[in-house]
Design a protein that fits this description.
alpha+beta, 3-stranded antiparallel β-sheet, two-stranded antiparallel sheet, 4 helices, 18% strand
Length: 106
């Protein structure tokens, strides 16, 4: 099976991997800093996408307290991982090659 990447896609994938690695490291150092409020998650990743990911079980919403009106929070690392996977999925599904491409045999 051959997967074809153009230069932009490959660059973007490396950037996403680096962002995820930094977020995971920061989460280990200070887990509380990894949490985004629902509003922040909607602003950074688009409300429709965050809701869809939550409904599909790809991310987990957590309440900051036991009360029903407690703030809903999401992990920045989880959001970055799903966003990167969503970007990469169509690249891995296609099978044609193009110019300025890197072909990897897996």
């Amino acid at each position: 099976m051959f997967i074809t990447f153009d230069t932009f896609e490959l660059k973007r994938m490396f950037e996403e991997v680096a962002n995820i690695a930094v977020a995971a490291y920061q989460k280990q150092l200070c887990p509380a800093d990894d949490l985004l409020s629902q509003r922040e998650a909607y602003e950074q990743f688009q409300e429709v996408r965050v809701r869809r990911w939550r409904d599909e079980g790809l991310i987990t919403a957590r309440r900051s307290g036991p009360a029903r009106n407690s703030k809903i929070q999401y992990s920045r690392t989880e959001l970055l991982q799903v966003a990167a996977a969503e970007f990469a999925r169509p690249i891995f599904l296609r099978s044609r090659s193009g110019r300025n491409s890197y072909v990897h045999n897996i």
